[in-house]
Amino acid sequence: MSVQAPTKAPKITYSAVGGNMDEIHASYDAALAAVRGKLGATHRLFIDGAFVEGDGPLQQTASPIDREVIIGKFTSASA
């Protein structure tokens, strides 16, 4: 049995190391801005490798911790 090592460097999600964390903070802030920029977007269904329109109303989803933040609007469909 062989195990392959990951080809990418692991992502640090927590660090107790002191020192200059400016690069990590800048990357975090950039990622947070990218996610915030996508909040509230409308998402279509993805079926059989293609985006399709649903036949139902849009379902709006809010953040469970802040109901004022709309995560997105999602197309609904029947079976």
Task: Describe this entry's structure for a reader.
By secondary structure, the protein is an alpha+beta fold. The protein has a domain at 39-79. It is 22% helix and 23% strand. The protein has one helix and five strands. The longest helix has 17 residues, at 22-38. The N and C termini lie far apart (43 Å). The model has no long low-confidence stretch (mean pLDDT 84).
Annotate the secondary structure layout.
Layout: H1 22-38, E1 41-43, E2 45-47, E3 50-52, E4 59-62, E5 70-74
Parallel strand pairs: 1-5
Antiparallel strand pairs: 2-3, 4-5
Oligomer: single chain
Order of helices and strands: HEEEEE
Shape: extended
CA distance, first residue to last residue = 43 Å
Provide the residue-averaged pLDDT. Answer: 84
- Estimated radius of gyration: 19 Å
Structural class category:
alpha+beta
Strand order of the largest sheet: 1-5-4
Outline the biggest β-sheet: 3 strands, mixed
Extract low-pLDDT stretches.
Answer: none
Beta-strand percentage range: 15-25%
Number of strands: 5
Helix residue percentage:
10-25%
* Count of helical stretches: 1
Key features of this structure:
79 residues; alpha+beta; 3-stranded mixed β-sheet; two-stranded antiparallel ribbon; 1 helix
In short:
The protein is of the alpha+beta class and 79 residues long. It is 22% helix and 23% strand.
